[in-house]
Design brief:
Blueprint (H helix, E strand, L loop, with lengths): L6 H8 L6 H22 L2 H4 L4 H23 L7 H18 L6 H4 L1 H11 L1 H21 L6 H35 L7 H17 L3 E8 L4 E8 L10 E2 L2 H7 L6 E6 L5 H6 L1 E5 L4 E3 L3 H11 L3 E9 L2 E9 L6 H65 L6 H27 L5 H19 L2 E6 L8 H20 L4 E9 L2 E9 L13 H9 L3 E6 L4 E9 L1
Parallel strand pairs: 9-10
Antiparallel strand pairs: 1-2, 1-8, 2-3, 4-5, 4-7, 5-6, 7-8, 10-11, 11-13, 12-13
Helix pairs in contact: 1-9, 2-4, 2-7, 5-7, 5-8, 7-8, 7-9, 8-9, 9-10, 9-14, 10-14, 14-15, 16-17, 17-18
């Protein structure tokens, strides 16, 4: 299933995309070849008599320019060609044509080089612009030289320039599609979870098409639950969460057969959208159909978009459908084919992650039970013995003893530690996740303990979603606990703060403590355990001295 490429529709995706290293090396080398070829042509015995010193100097300058660009690009590992270069090439070839006084020479072919560079490096629009400018300037030179045959090479330049630009954007399109599928199929760390991976991939579809919204609705037949994932232009990742939906909503949106993909355009939109209208393709029968047009018209109103495309989603007992809606573009049959491949890739990645999670859960269950028993026998029991000893010491000292309040505080600290250890052991044993709201409560309890027993005031500010859960929330709590423990053990600070925000698909954590002036400059350090924990999650850790007298540990973890 295929259709012509939409050069004007997709050019905005390709404006900032450069060629590969091989393309850049080839284009830079080709400029050198053309420059020295022009010098050889004009230095030939038949042309050397008319080659003035000024022309010879210009040729040498262009040759030197080509060589310098090649050397610089080699040192920079062949980046994409700058926009100004192909315009310099165009003007120089116009100069060669004008100086020779004829449009019927070899320099006519040189114009295809800047067209090639602009199209393959900067997309269709830039290639057409260079083609038009080259054609106009070439024709102007021919008219000034009074050559009636200029119209033939000028027409060829315009025609083949357009074809080259078209092929350039087609090559860009293929690259971008392969890059999209490669990004979707990249292996994910199991800690991210299926929900995060699904959101990230539909966000990739949204960005690739510059669409307004992307929706994935799934139906798990064995569990009889229905889940909807959404990604909307302009919304932050922290606000885009999966949500359960009712069976009525799912039935309304999944009325198409599970093997059918389709696109639909607003019949009252621009003429080119009305011309494309509607098309559906059955992936099992490998045929197009005009059925279900009315259902798609209803969906367009429901999605509140000028046009949309939809493809089925299916993997191991889970079925659903992907909807991609846009208000400023259109779709073709080739987009249905690409979306179907992306849907299969997403389903495969999710299935692999689910399998990995099951393997990890099965392998870790016995280890968690063993750790829970070891924790009870080697840690909790000694703490209980310590508490009993402190209780006996408190009764022996009596209430009138000046040390009794301190002993009583130690008893409370021991009870709190035993309670935390028992909760942790229960969590290990029952494999219970730590949801976001419990994360905030746990941090608040930690701060209260530091304030009560050690006089350290901890200010906690959080802008994270309450839906944050699982291993990520547990890891964040461990980082915060370790950071506050470092404040207690390694500093004399009485003020500290914790701030957690979700920004640009990252969880940003800042833990800081005041640095009293009498301690002077603090030696640079890196908390090793925090650094290793964050690095294992693919994040970054930095330590800096704030302007307000605070030492701050900054952590950024991809979500």
């Amino acid at each position: 299933m295929s259709s012509p490429v939409r050069p004007f529709a997709i050019s905005h995706h390709l404006e900032t995309q450069g060629g590969t290293e091989t393309d850049s090396r080839m284009l830079v080398t080709l400029r050198c070849l053309l420059a020295f070829s022009a010098l050889a042509i004009l230095a030939a015995p038949s042309q050397s008599e008319s080659l003035s010193t000024l022309h010879f100097v210009f040729l040498l300058i262009y040759c030197a320019f080509s060589v310098i660009v090649a050397l610089v690009w080699y040192q920079r590992d062949w980046p994409v060609m700058a926009r100004s270069f192909h315009w310099i090439d165009t003007l120089f070839y116009v100069y060669l044509t004008a100086w020779s006084g004829s449009t019927e020479n070899y320099f006519f072919l040189f114009f295809f080089y800047p067209i090639l560079v602009s199209a393959f490096s900067w997309g269709f629009r830039e290639g057409v612009m260079v083609t038009l400018v080259s054609t106009v300037l070439f024709s102007t030179v021919g008219l000034i030289a009074n050559q009636s045959s200029t119209i033939i090479p000028a027409s060829g330049l315009l025609l083949f320039g357009y074809v080259i630009s078209y092929l350039g954007v087609y090559e860009h399109l293929l690259r971008s599609r392969l890059a999209l599928l490669r990004a979707i199929n990249n292996p994910w760390h199991p800690r991210f979870g299926i929900d995060h991976v699904t959101h990230a991939n539909i966000k990739r579809l949204l960005d690739f098409y510059n669409a307004s919204s992307c929706i994935l609705i799934t139906r798990h037949h064995s569990l009889q639950n229905y889940v909807m994932y959404t990604s909307t232009r302009g919304k932050t990742a922290s606000l885009e969460i999966q949500r359960d939906v009712s069976k009525n909503v799912v039935d309304a949106l999944l009325t198409l057969p599970e093997t059918l993909g389709a696109y639909y355009h607003d019949p009252e939109g621009p003429w080119w959208m009305r011309y494309r209208g509607y098309s559906a393709f059955d992936f099992d029968l490998k045929t197009k159909t005009n059925s279900f047009r009315q259902e798609c018209a209803v969906w367009r109103n429901l999605l509140d978009a000028k046009s949309f495309a939809t493809v089925p989603y299916a993997h191991e007992g889970i079925t659903g459908r992907i909807f991609l809606a846009t208000s400023n573009g259109w779709f073709t049959s080739a987009d249905i084919d690409l979306l179907a491949q992306a849907s299969d890739a997403i389903a495969t990645v999710v299935g692999n992650m689910r399998l990995v999670e099951e393997l990890i859960a099965g392998a870790a269950e016995s280890e968690r039970l063993l750790m829970s028993r070891d924790l009870h026998d080697t840690t909790i029991q000694p703490y209980i013995g310590l508490k009993l000893a402190l209780d006996g010491l408190y009764r022996e000292a009596g209430a009138s003893n000046p040390l009794s309040p301190r002993i009583f505080d130690l008893i409370e600290m021991t009870e709190s530690t035993i309670r935390d250890l028992r909760n942790y052991a229960a969590t290990l044993k029952d494999n219970m996740p730590m949801p976001g709201e419990f994360l905030l409560d746990a941090m608040a309890k930690q701060a209260e303990r530091l304030r009560r027993f050690y006089g350290i005031n901890v200010d906690i500010k959080s802008e994270i979603s309450p839906e944050l859960k699982g291993r990520l929330a547990a890891e964040v709590f461990q980082i915060v606990s370790e950071s506050l423990s470092n404040v207690l053990r390694h500093t004399a600070a009485k003020k500290a703060f914790v701030k957690i925000v979700c920004e640009n698909s990252k969880l940003l954590l800042r833990v800081g403590n005041e640095t009293p002036a009498e301690f002077g400059n603090v030696v640079n350090f890196m908390p090793r355990s925090i650094y290793e924990r964050v690095r294992a999650m693919g994040g970054e850790t930095t330590v800096e001295q704030g302007n307000e007298g605070f030492t701050v540990v900054r952590v950024a973890i991809p979500m």
